[in-house]
Amino acid sequence: MPKHQPVEKEVPIQVMVPSDIHKQVALIGIENGESIRTVVLRGLKAIGVDVPDDQLVDRRGRRRA
């Protein structure tokens, strides 16, 4: 039986960005079929933040074609 990893508490993070940046991030998400959350987490990982791969999964419960 596989061991379950403890679920780490998630907390909100809020940042104000110009609307054109928001649009760019949203478009990247649409192009990749990902949520904005996933796009942001991938960006954080790219700059060296330790983001586990299992956090890069879309949790919305639906898939975009």
Give me a quick take on this structure:
By secondary structure, this protein is mainly α. It has helices at about 20-30, 35-45. About 0% of the residues are buried.
Features:
65 residues; 2 helices; mainly alpha
Oligomer: single chain
Give me the strand/helix succession. HH
Q: Radius of gyration in whole Å, from Cα?
A: 14 Å
- Taken from the alpha-carbon principal axes, the silhouette is globular
Tell me the β content: under 5%
Ends distance: 34 Å
In this structure, how is the largest beta sheet organized?
none
Backbone structural class: mainly alpha
Mean pLDDT, as a whole number?
Answer: 87
- How many alpha or pi helices? 2
Low-confidence stretches: none
Helix percent band:
25-40%
Tally of extended strands? 0
Please, could you describe this protein's structure?
- The chain is mainly alpha-helical.
- It has 2 helices and no strands.
- It has helices spanning 19-32, 36-46.
- Helix 1 crosses helix 2.
- The longest helix has 14 residues, at 19-32.
- It is globular, with a radius of gyration of 14 Å.
- The mean pLDDT is 87.
Topology, pairings included?
Elements lengths: L18 H14 L3 H11 L19
